[in-house]
């Protein structure tokens, strides 16, 4: 039996309704019944009341559609079971006593629902209530007409909306009944699923092989019309629309190019939102290619079948009046709050922002000559390429074994960049340019960390020169890495080597300090710090998810940083 997050199997339908009402101040339960009503029943005095309902397990249907502008109330059955005559009658009496000017029952075409709502209607009429019933059958699955007729599925929510907007505007029971009867004939729905479903405490409704999908199944796990191999989303959507509109299918919907439709892309309960978005895009594209205008599109979970990993597509042919009724405001919690407008895959894109023109390189900035810069960078690149395998080996114990590869990629990118143009000699521009190269080419979190370090260091060096400026730049770079990377010295990361070197570079601030001696001390400190990471417990980065007892090697990032500093000094 599949797992379910319920409190008790027997109470799950009641608990779900109680949860909905608890979280929504516009809803009330009818005492002693599984009935949800609008909190402001007095507002329906002199207006038509709308009641619907059906089995539980299809949430948010139907209780999610109760509210001003949609349903007055709903009657819920047990899991996948029709509501009782007594509860339906109690709901009818509640709205009749509130002064409703007529009551319309919107019923989905299932034998149990027709029988129970029909029986309650007859009894309510005997009590003098003005009650009518419309039965919705929007399923396009079956190609030959069956005696039971088409099943009522997700298209029913559009009927709730159209009827609700008319009732809110003060339309009579005759007008509403006539309009929804006509509207129900110009819509169709078809489901497709990758999985079965189950109600709490029960086994799966049917079996589907790993590589199969089922077309045309119902919202209780009833069999569909066709099993087929799993198709890509776009092909699956094409198959669905073809079946829905095939003239040889007795339950098809006729669509002529130039028509306007409302599209509902409904999650049957267990499809991810990502898949639903892909299906929605494919549906809009497919309909556009057929020359149809998608006046409105709704995407979400509107009528589900527990955890079924599937989707249904509903199409309703619309004119301007129907679109206005769909757009009319409602307080029902499950109705999407979308901006009124057509759906299309041909939306104009926002133009990409233009980058500010780069300032011409300031060659007057005092700094090492281009030739010297090239020599140092070549040494750094050669060093990183030489230690590629060593870094990969160190990284296998704690990461994904690609640290050497990532650094070698960076080295090759820098070499390629130097071949294409001489590097700028001014320090701020040099570091800034290197940051751009690494951010674009290095990949991994290392690329971003080096990019952060170099960008912040470059900003610190702008319009400054002299040895103390380099100490400040090192500190600025480390501060940026810590701010966004979250690591601190002692966390067994590349920061350990950098931090140790930075401490040594602080001596550059002393008047008369020998830069080469200070740099040599910084390299020594960095190498010692890299070696010391062997005995540290990882506090950040991917290695922090691994038990420290398994990390007997130094951190590859720290080793790489020490090697880079060493190459600069040579």
Automatic annotation (TrEMBL):
GO terms for molecular function: ATP binding; FAD-AMP lyase (cyclizing) activity; glycerone kinase activity; metal ion binding; triokinase activity. Substrate binds at residues 55-58, 113. Its cofactor is Mg(2+); Co(2+); Mn(2+). Residues 345-362 have a biased composition (Basic and acidic residues). It comes from the Eukaryota. SUPFAM superfamilies: DAK1/DegV-like, DhaL-like. It catalyses: D-glyceraldehyde + ATP = D-glyceraldehyde 3-phosphate + ADP + H(+); FAD = riboflavin cyclic-4',5'-phosphate + AMP + H(+); dihydroxyacetone + ATP = dihydroxyacetone phosphate + ADP + H(+). GO terms for cellular component: cytosol. Residues 344-369 are annotated as: Disordered. Residues 371-570 form the DhaL domain. InterPro entries: DhaK_ATP, DhaK_dom, DhaL_dom, DhaL_dom_sf, Dihydroxyacetone_Kinase. The keyword Cytoplasm does not apply. Keywords: ATP-binding, Cobalt, FAD, Flavoprotein, Kinase, Lyase, Magnesium, Manganese, Metal-binding, Multifunctional enzyme, Nucleotide-binding, Phosphoprotein, Transferase. Residues 8-335 form the DhaK domain. The keyword Flavoprotein applies. Its EC number is 2.7.1.28, 2.7.1.29, 4.6.1.15. GO terms for biological process: glycerol catabolic process. Gene3D superfamilies: 1.25.40.340, Dihydroxyacetone kinase, domain 1 (3.40.50.10440), Dihydroxyacetone kinase, domain 2 (3.30.1180.20). PANTHER family: TRIOKINASE/FMN CYCLASE, TRIOKINASE_FMN CYCLASE. Catalyzes both the phosphorylation of dihydroxyacetone and of glyceraldehyde, and the splitting of ribonucleoside diphosphate-X compounds among which FAD is the best substrate. Represses IFIH1-mediated cellular antiviral response. Homodimer. Interacts with IFIH1 (via the CARD domains), the interaction is inhibited by viral infection. This is Triokinase/FMN cyclase. It comes from Vidua macroura.
């Amino acid at each position: 039996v599949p797992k379910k997050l319920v409190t008790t199997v027997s109470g799950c339908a009641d608990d779900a309704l109680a949860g909905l009402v608890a979280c929504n101040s516009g809803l009330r339960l009818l005492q002693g019944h599984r009935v949800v009503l609008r909190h402001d029943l007095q507002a329906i005095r002199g207006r038509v009341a709308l009641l619907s309902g059906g089995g539980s397990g299809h949430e948010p249907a139907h209780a999610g559609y109760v509210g001003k502008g949609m349903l007055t109330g709903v009657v819920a059955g047990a899991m996948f079971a029709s509501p009782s005559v007594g509860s339906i009658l109690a709901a009818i009496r509640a709205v009749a006593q509130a002064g409703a000017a007529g009551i319309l029952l919107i019923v989905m075409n299932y034998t149990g629902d027709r029988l129970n709502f029909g029986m309650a209607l007859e009894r309510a009429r005997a009590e003098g209530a003005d009650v009518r019933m419309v039965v919705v059958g929007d399923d396009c699955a079956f190609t030959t007409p069956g005696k039971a007729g088409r099943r009522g599925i997700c298209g029913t929510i559009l009927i709730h909306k159209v009827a609700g907007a008319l009732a809110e505007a003060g339309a009579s029971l005759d007008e509403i009944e006539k309009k929804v009867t006509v509207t129900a004939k110009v819509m169709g729905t078809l489901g497709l699923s990758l999985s079965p479903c189950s109600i709490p405490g029960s086994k799966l409704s049917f079996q589907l092989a790993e590589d199969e999908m089922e077309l045309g199944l119902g919202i209780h796990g009833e069999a569909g019309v066709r099993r087929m191999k799993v198709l890509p989303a776009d092909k699956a959507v094409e198959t669905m629309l073809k079946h829905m509109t095939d003239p040889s299918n007795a339950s098809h919907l006729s669509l002529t190019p130039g028509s306007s439709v409302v599209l509902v892309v409904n999650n049957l309960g267990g499809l991810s939102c990502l898949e639903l978005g892909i299906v929605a895009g494919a549906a809009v594209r497919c309909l556009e290619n057929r020359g149809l205008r998608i006046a409105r599109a709704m995407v979400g979970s509107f009528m589900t079948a527990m955890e079924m990993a599937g989707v249904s597509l509903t199409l309703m042919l619309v004119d301007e009046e129907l679109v206005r009724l769909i757009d009319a405001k409602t307080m029902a919690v499950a109705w999407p709050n979308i901006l009124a407008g057509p759906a299309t895959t041909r939306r104009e894109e926002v133009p990409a922002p233009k980058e500010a023109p780069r300032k011409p390189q300031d060659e007057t900035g005092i700094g090492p000559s281009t030739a010297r810069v090239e020599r140092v960078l070549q040494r750094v690149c050669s060093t990183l390429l030489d230690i590629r395998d060593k870094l990969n080996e160190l990284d296998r114990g704690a990461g994904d074994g690609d640290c050497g590869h990532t650094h070698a990629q960076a080295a090759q990118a820098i070499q390629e960049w130097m071949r294409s143009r001489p590097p700028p000699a001014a320090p701020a521009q040099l570091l800034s340019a290197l940051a751009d190269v690494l951010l674009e080419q290095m990949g991994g979190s290392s690329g971003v960390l080096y990019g952060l370090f170099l960008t912040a260091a470059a900003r610190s060096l702008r319009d400054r020169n002299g040895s103390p400026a380099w100490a400040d730049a090192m500190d600025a770079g480390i501060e940026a890495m810590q701010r966004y990377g979250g690591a601190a010295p002692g966390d067994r990361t590349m920061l350990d080597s950098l931090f140790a070197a930075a401490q040594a570079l602080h001596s550059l601030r002393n008047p008369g300090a020998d830069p080469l001696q200070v740099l040599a001390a910084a390299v020594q400190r960095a190498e010692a710090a890299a070696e010391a990471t062997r005995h540290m417990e990882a506090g950040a980065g991917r290695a922090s998810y691994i038990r420290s007892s398994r990390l007997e090697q130094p951190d590859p990032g720290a080793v790489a940083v020490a090697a880079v500093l060493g190459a600069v000094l040579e």
